[in-house]
Amino acid sequence: MKIAANQLASHLKSKLLPCYMVTGDEHLLVQEALDAIRLAAREQGFGSRELYTATTGFDWSDLAGAGGNLSLFADRRIIELRLPTGKPGVKGSATIIDMLGTIDDDLLFLVSAPKLERNAAAAKWSKAIEAKGGVVQIWPVDLRALPAWINERMRHAGLQPDRDAVRLLADRVEGNLLAAQQEIEKLRLLHGEGPVSAAEVDAAVADSSRFDVYKLVDAAVAGNAARAVRIMGGIRAEGVEPVILMWALTRELRMLAGLADGIQSGTDLSAGMRKARVWQNRQGLVRACIGRHQAADFYQLLQLARQADACAKGQMHGDPWQLATQIVMALAMGGARAA
Question: Which DSSP string do the residues of 289-309 spell out, in sequence order?
Fold first, then answer.
């Protein structure tokens, strides 16, 4: 059966199906849906969890064997499969279908994947999960719906924001739901439950750690590699998710690539920065950065940023912080050689 994301909580209160698949590209919402399913399972006695990630070279016989193995003390188990590409292949498809046939009351099969392409969503393995259990498709939050989403989240956290506070926060996070959630949590820590004004949101943003992702990006764009790496160490120590850092770097690299392309086609850089809404106090940094690079450099770094983002989301093997360091060094030093 298909389960709407906003109906998952009520569904889990009434029943727990033998298997679920959660798909989508909104990392925060996918993780929250998975957490909700795991919590419901724990409340029904599923005390152990086995995790398998189907990256390149994955041995599908490991997953096949897991379904038949009895855990110590015969706990009820969650077997969780991550499909970073959303395409298990021929052997993986057959293994998933066979796995569904062996599920009993003591086993919950939980699959997660990015948004499935049409062929994958219509594949036999996907339809088998839908027939046996539940499929939860996570849709992105449209920018026009973002203020309402933020308002609901803030009120759920016990905050009572005014309209300007919600609008300011929406402008700040620009569609990054994970960043929005972290800002909401920070506001609650700073002010406790109750009313929140735009001035308080603005102050919280201004008072955020001196090692924040925006200052890191500015340091790299300014060519100050040492400061950028030092700031990165600070935000990592503070527990900032690498997904947020990669979002900020990717946004900046896209903007820089667009400006560099504009220059090659004859567009004046000042006019390009105005069109891209680069703040006046950042235009000098951006101009200097454009001068250190060719347009191709930014596209190479964007490719590396996509790899780092996939690593941060568990879709590829690798250290996202190491890749982020390479991007920051290359951006600060000029050229993509450091990457």
Answer: HHHH--HHHHHHHHHHHHHHH
- If asked whether residues 123 and 66 sit together in one domain, one would say yes
Six-digit token string for 318: 């690798």
Question: How far is 16 from 50, CA to CA, in rounded Å?
Answer: 18
Strand ranges (E), 114-261: 134-137, 159-161, 194-196
pTM metric for this prediction: 0.64
What is the Cα–Cα distance from 141 to 115, expressed in whole angstroms?
14
Number of C-beta neighbours around residue 216 at 10 A: 24
Contact 249, 217 (CB under 8 A): yes
Which pair of structure tokens corresponds to residue 119? Answer: 């062929």
Q: Are 19 and 100 in contact (CB under 8 A)?
A: yes
pLDDT digits (tens, 9 = 90+) for 215-240: 899 999 999 998 899 889 888 887 88
Range of the domain at 54: 2-137
